[in-house]
Amino acid sequence: MADTIRLATENKPSIHALEATNFFLADVQTGLGPFLAAYLAGSGWEPGRVGIALTIGGVITVALQAPAGAIVDQVRSKKLILIFASAVLALGAVLLSVTAAPWAVYTSQLLIGGAGPFLGPTLAAVTMGIVGVTFFDRQFGKNQSFNSAGNVACALLIAGLSHLFGNRAIFITAAILTIPTVLAIRAIRSKDIDYDLARGGAKQVHGKEVSARASVMKTLFRDPVLLIFLGCAFLFHFANAAMLPQLGEMLSHGVRASAAPFMSACIIVTQVVIMCFAPAIGRFANLHGRKPLLMIGFGVLPIRALLYTLTDNRESLIAIQLLDGVANAIFGVVSILVVADRTRATGRFNLVQGSLATAVGLGAALSTTFGGKLIQHFSYRISFLSLGAIAALAFLLLWSAIPETLSRRRDDDTDTPFQETPQELPA
Question: For the ranges 108-122, 253-267, 322-336, which has the lowest average pLDDT?
């Protein structure tokens, strides 16, 4: 026990640096994402051209998710990936701050869309490499909390700076925030990151030798539980992604000036819920399993869609947004835990993370198109109810086809740097 406490204490500086990386990297990504459309519209871009610019980045991101995960599995220096991707994001931000000319905007979207897919898998890989399988649940939940705190802090910072100095300050701020991000990454000690663990590999499981890396076919296409879970993730985001944009669009008619503050309030509510509950979600999933939490996360989504059709009171709608925070907090943490469970000892953890991100991205992209068509031909009410029906389908598929993925035997395995019970992880 003394050795395990010593190991945990020795890794603490790297763990704190990892948490700081999640915080500052969220700042950079927040500065580059939600505010771009408003910046381009204010620079004289027509809505159609704004959509094309945003689509370029989105398509690149979705296309690179799985390949990026495979690269993260192979590259030994995870810190180098994070530093390089952060630098590419900063370059995209600098281009946007200099000019809103088409060449600069399209180039920046290629850079940002190309760097983004590497960040999530690499952060999860570094987490796994530092804390091991036994404590990945809890630490990944804490990472998500720091990420959401960064989103809230950056949204508030940018709101103030853009009010004082104009929209160009958004991207200057994002570029400057790359500096503390890189400093935090460099503070993670490379010797604390176990390469095999970081890609979901292991030398022994249950006392038996295992291969360092399983084939892609065996890991992904021959695991029906994993494939069905990717389908559940697709349906979840197909139902979820369009809800908040539709709500903002519906409420902006005739009161456009108050739409932006309303949307900001909704986004902040969601992020605050994630920030507060993500660590507890990681701990609960470690002790009691993944499926109970997933059932709650998937179950609140159709309820949220229904509630949106029952009131147009802004305070009530913001309160309903608490459910969005619950759903996204659970999915953001537990979905990666399920991937970790199903890819254990395969060496393909990050590849499957990328496949999950692809399913999420495709679902989100189709969601806005689907919801927009329903609004165009029917009404907002019909669109919300239809999205709620898809959410209910995702819930039923999860309930009927996905078993509990947490292995109760994992404390006997030899692929984790600490051999404590979950309750003995130092705070």
Answer: 253-267
Give the integer Cα–Cα distance in Å for 412 and 415: 9
> Looking at 5-105, which runs of residues are DSSP E strands?
none
Enclosing domain of residue 47: 9-191
Is residue 1 in a domain?
Answer: no
| Distances, alpha carbon 264 to alpha carbons 256, 279, 321, 383, in Å | 14, 24, 12, 22
Residue 202 in domain = no
Q: Kindly state the tokens that stand for 372.
A: 């927009």
Asked whether residue 338 is domain-assigned, the answer is: yes
For residue 198, being part of any structural domain is answered with no
Using the predicted structure, report yes or no on whether residue 416 has a pLDDT greater than 90. Answer: no
* Region of 254 on the Ramachandran plot (φ > 0 left; ψ -120 to 50 alpha; else beta): left
**pLDDT confidence bin for 151, thresholds 50/70/90:** confident
When mean pLDDT is compared over 93-97, 129-133, 233-237, the highest value belongs to 233-237
Of 356, 320, 139, 174, nearest in space to 247 by CA: 320
Which residues, 6 or more positions from 238, have their beta carbon under 8 angstroms from its beta carbon?
Answer: 363, 364, 366, 367, 370, 387, 390, 394
pTM listed for this prediction: 0.78
Our CA angle for 383, 387, 391, nearest 5°, is 165
Q: At 76, which CATH number?
A: 1.20.1250.20
